Here is the input.
Amino acid sequence: MDNNLKSQNGKRPFGIRDSIAYAAGDLGCNMSFALKGTMALFWTQVMGLGLYYSLLLVIVQIWDAINDPLIGSIIDADRRQYRRNKFLSYIWFGSIGLIVGGALCFLPFPGLENWAKIIIFICGYVIWDAFYTIANVPYGSLLSLISNDPADRASLSAWRSIGSMIGNMLPMVILPFIIYNKDDSLNGGRVFLAALIMGVLGFICFQFMIRNTEVRVDTEVKLNEDQPKFNVFTALWNFVRNRPAVGATLAAMGMFIGMQGAATAVSVVFQIYFQNAKISGVVQLFAMIPILLFTPLARKMVTKYGKKELSVVGAICSIVGGLGLFIMTPSNTTLDLVIYIICQLIYSLGLGVYSTVSWAMMGDAIDYNEWKTGKREEGIVYSMHSFFRKLAQGIGPAVALVIMNAMGYVNNAKPDAAGNFTEIDVTLLSFDVAINLRLLVAILFLVSALMQFIGLALVYNLDKKTLAQMNRELGRDVTPAE
Here is the structure.
């Protein structure tokens, strides 16, 4: 299709350009976000905060509780006229801050007093998180504005998953070879430099997305004297009553408990159980093969079966993979690594089915809010979804670290004979501790899969039939492209 042609409403017809541009947006987000999985290792093994870090993660989630809904409500209440679109304008501003925001979370000064480290961490995280939210919340809301067509939205969601995967895969594979020393200890200076470079790459991705995004759904607010003022508390109550939004959010929290909560434990397992930290990224990349295979099929399968129906099957598949991770052969770690990889493949197959339609499901949840309340409130719906995702991303690693320390993972950096702080050598931990951590990884992945199943099968209520009814009543009765 020629993207230079204009449709009857003056907008460029939906095509591959839209999908690639939208994928670039999540690639930009993940260029900044990908190092969050390394944050726990950095602040415990390099900066030596130990259990202090677990407490700090909980504290900064209080900022998240204020930050996400606040920024979402500001975006919804913003009725100024922008040259193109207010969401794109917020994304542009947020992308600038992310250039340095991520790097501020990895300032390598291990010789400082703990109080100074705590201040650096909190300030760096708050700055990064604010700019990330400013870019990410309107980015997620854009999906429902680019097209009304469910098949188009499925395509955008699938391509967003591709952007997310690339944004995770590149750092996942390349960074372990850069940020680890020869003895598998973490190099703080290299982590900081990597974070700064990734911030620049993310900015470039966002600019590409902004310049190639066409907003086709007209939701601009027409100001008049009788129009009620935006009420954030009413909007929050609407979110709580929005079953699709709550179900999709619960599933996303489960997904991130598996991806982020287990990330620290997985990294340490490869350090002391499989005794090869550098291959951890390669193994995780291999586990993403099912996601890559499913993504091209997402549009047609959604058209035939429905998003909810497909994602529930995916959650069941992930449960099977999570149960398989409990199979261990500690006397033969090579065989155990093979079993681990196979079970990760099965788990990732289920995750791939859900992740490729997850954002389209949130787009439908925004429509559901309009269907039931008469108000779209994209910003607040997506920001609340984003808040709970971040809550899982923060609370998950914090709880995992507490459990890991209870299992024997003690990681406070200590000065050497010359008084210099050095990275801790986690390879000195006992193999019994490694086995416990290996089991913890299996538990976290299984809990992740169960949360996805509950959210998608029992709470989310927009099956294929209900979705069609909603679109008809909203005047968006479109026939999905086969």
